[in-house]
Amino acid sequence: MKRCDVTSATIDDFGSQPVAVIGYGNQGRAHALNLRDAGADVLVGQRPGHSFDTAVADDFAPVSVSDAVTAASLIILTLPDERAAEVYAADIEPALKSGHTLGFVHGFNIRYGFINPPQNVDCIMIAPKGPGTLLRSLYVDSRGMPALLAIHQDATGNARRTALAWAAGIGATRAGVVETTFAAETECDLFGEQTVLCGGVTALMKAAFDTLVDAGYEPELAYIECVHELKQVVDLIYEGGISHMRRKISNTAEYGDLTRGPIVVDKSTRARMRQILAEIQDGTFAREWMAETAAGMSRMKQLHDADKTSPIEDAGRAARSLMPWLQGDA
Known about the structure:
Layout: E1 2-3, E2 19-22, H1 26-38, E3 42-45, H2 50-57, H3 65-71, E4 74-77, H4 81-92, E5 101-104, H5 108-111, E6 122-128, H6 132-140, E7 147-153, H7 159-169, E8 177-179, H8 182-197, H9 199-214, H10 219-228, H11 230-240, H12 242-248, H13 251-264, H14 267-281, H15 284-294, H16 298-308, H17 311-320
Parallel strand pairs: 2-3, 2-4, 4-5, 5-6, 7-8
Antiparallel strand pairs: 1-8, 6-7
């Protein structure tokens, strides 16, 4: 892991040139607000709709994407992966000029070639390692979120300087900036989401829940033991790592962890993880996802709706009704 020297990073490197943030969703809003608070001249490029109205409520005056690109020197794309290439082709690429800098918060479209910037522009990435809401709240609290930095093209010779100025503007240099590549960021990010953070964790919770319910245990009890209490364990790992978590739990729990965990995640599980990684590396997943979005996300909606009405969700609603301090969906 190569940690960047951020001692000279400053938002002043933007000079008087505006920064365009394209998209005003979770990440876009945080980048725009943080950069503005840091002193940058920020333009928001956003089509009319809910996000447009949110930007107006935050005292921005959103303009068309092409107008934002024309006026700015750094253009930060915070659009969803599946929409970025379409917006780029229609509204960004025609307005690009030599010396512009394209900034990405995730490497997906560059890694898989859905966006191919012209050779006369810089192409950089600053990828905060967390959601935009947390990026914003940490900044307001005078703290920062770590971020990854990558440089795909350095046409001007100033790409790194621009990237570090961007990192400073969103508060990432308060925590730390680690250099990587677009490919490594994308592949590791997708792999983590699919095998652990989203796919792996939810599948494991559902399988454990079903096992207890099938054995005759009450669904609400199964939910509390296999889903609700996960947060407590994850918080301990977040604070100090796996060993820290094991120091905080009971001896019985730790012994079960050390002896039964490898039975659940065995050699066959690791083999399937390697297959998932291979499909990320060779572009199979990316092509599948883009085809799914082009087809209207019918399969994704079907899977989503089936899970939304599953027994584990019913049990969760019943269990959470005992905890009125929780603020999630009913």
